[in-house]
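Q: Here's a chain of 165 amino acids. Please give me its 3D structure as tokens.
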Amino acid sequence: MKTQKIMRSLFGAMFALMLTTSVANAQSKDIVDLAVGADNLKTLVAAVKAGGLVETLKGDGPFTVFAPTDEAFAALPKGTLEMLLKPENKDKLVAILTYHVVAGKVMSTDLSNGQKAATVNGEKITVSIGNGGVKISGAKVIAADVKAKNGVVHIIDKVILPPNM
């Protein structure tokens, strides 16, 4: 019994150290580098590159990015992502990507139910807080407050589209 307690304490300490190290590493990276290093944001990285937004999101910021996962992009209607990644559709892609970005550093504790926030593309997103958790224009926040050196990333479960699309 005593051995189990010691093992649990040791495991807890190791986990806390790993988490602290992970957060420290995230904070030393900009938003783009953070996304590049994430296993579930590869499609977002490809879209940011295709949209020509890499340098912007590597800039000083601060920015708040609501980052859709690879699964979120895969859930788009068949052919949508491929169509958006074509050079002739860059304006549509940029409009969608910039709808996921708010100027400034907005932590989860700064959000309130019904809050509207202006995105970089000029449209507003709506925050909903309830029993289902926090949602941004209908997309559930599945990981919040991932700090980067030029802002913060909140990972969401779907791609949100501007109202004019």
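Q: Can you summarize the key feature?
A: The chain has a mean pLDDT of 86.
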